[in-house]
Predict the 3D structure of the following.
Amino acid sequence: MTDPLASWNEGAAKRAILDFVSRVTTAGSAAFVPPAERIATFDNDGTLWLEKPAYIQVLHGLRTIGRMAAEDPTLRDRQPFKAVYEQDAAWLAEVAADYAAGDSSGYRALAAAFAQGCEGMTVEAFEADVLEFLSTARDARFDRPYKQLTYRPMVELVHYLQSAGFDVYLTSGGGRDFMRAVCEEIYDIPRAKAIGSSVTFEYVDDARGLAQVVRTREIEQPADDGPGKPVHIHRAVGRRPIMAAGNADGDIPMLRYAGGHEGPTLGLLVHHDDAEREYAYDGGAEKAHGLAATEGWVVASMKDDWKTIFA
């Protein structure tokens, strides 16, 4: 028999996943869950693909902000344009450290500047820009285009769940439309099942008289992170998931939301503990790991549970 999780080492995490799927898909079992209710939600950054040394979407945003500052000198005296234009790595590192400590003000400033830079873009033009970035920009350490830096064991898990009748949704604190550019290609998750943070949109007739949907600079609230995740899941799905996977404190509400489903549930927490093959860090995930045992979440160790890291 083919192993559906061939990239996973034998151990408690793999057994828990296989047991859960078997229980909820076995007709006649007391734990059986009808296909319509088999909803799984997966965080993206750090759960399905690389998030260090910076979020991939942030790197795309920095490119956009840098272009704005290069074209408009009046922007260069204020943050975050000043730091990006001057390549002030210390300022950007401080923003990342503050975010890991729970202060998201720096990232909100970056998001606002990025939204300003993309204001008025059609949804098609934005997607083309994202796809070009993910296909050509390369990670310095692993020397691969960013869209190739997905975690093979987790993508394998997504496919296993899909084959077992699950509807799998992306639920990222990052941009929904950023993920839509590649989610079908790299995860085989339909773009309609990508849930994430977003700006708002407007309908316009362009100069040629063609109907277009364009981006505004207004950021939709709440963001799809922390307590916003269950809200966005309800908006998009209308059902409580029976499984959720994440890696950070921002995923706690989603994991707890899935755990509140009546009947069998599975919460999965990816642990970044492999400095040799990826990175080893707990920053921004301390609360999640502290809750894992009491909440009954399965912790997947990159070092111990995964035979390989990248697809």
Observations:
- The CA atoms of residues 103 and 237 lie 29 Å apart.
